[in-house]
Amino acid sequence: MTPARNRIAVYPGTFDPITNGHVDLVDRAARLFDRLILGVAESPAKSPALPLDLRVKLAREAVAHHPHVEVIGFDSLLAHFVAELGAGVLLRGLRAVSDFEYEFQLASMNRHLIPEVETLFLTPAEQYGFISSSLVREISRLGGDVSGFVPPAVADALQAQWQRTLA
Length: 167
Hints:
There is one protein chain. The chain is α/β, with parallel strands linked by helices. Strands 3-2-1-4-5 form a five-stranded parallel β-sheet, with helices on both faces. Helix content is 45%, strand content 17%. The chain is globular. The protein is built from seven helices and five strands.
């Protein structure tokens, strides 16, 4: 891996929705790389609650305070997306031990597909360790307050989404 590739990292996910835990990882990873790309995956198999363009928009708003962090939506194989960007690092978040087995499997597959790219795991700050996008979606869908778990624009977008769904 060339030194230039080492300075470009991709943090992929569906970000459905982006949470304060995701933003925390971006805040810390942004200090480590010259360029950090938040890759928002379309992921139709996961049936995202929010459309890709809205997830990209919300992620851009959430990380706008970092001038060298970009948000790009993608609908291809992650290995192809990373290769197109010339990145040398895949950033993944680990909230709990239960995440490790799945993430280890993904890292191993990605190492096979893109051997020149290293996977780096970061853990969120303790106050964000229990937050997951799926829990946030469920709480919001059932009318709960998610304002402590997501940026304000995300809480508003989720509320609007559920109102559209019910209408």
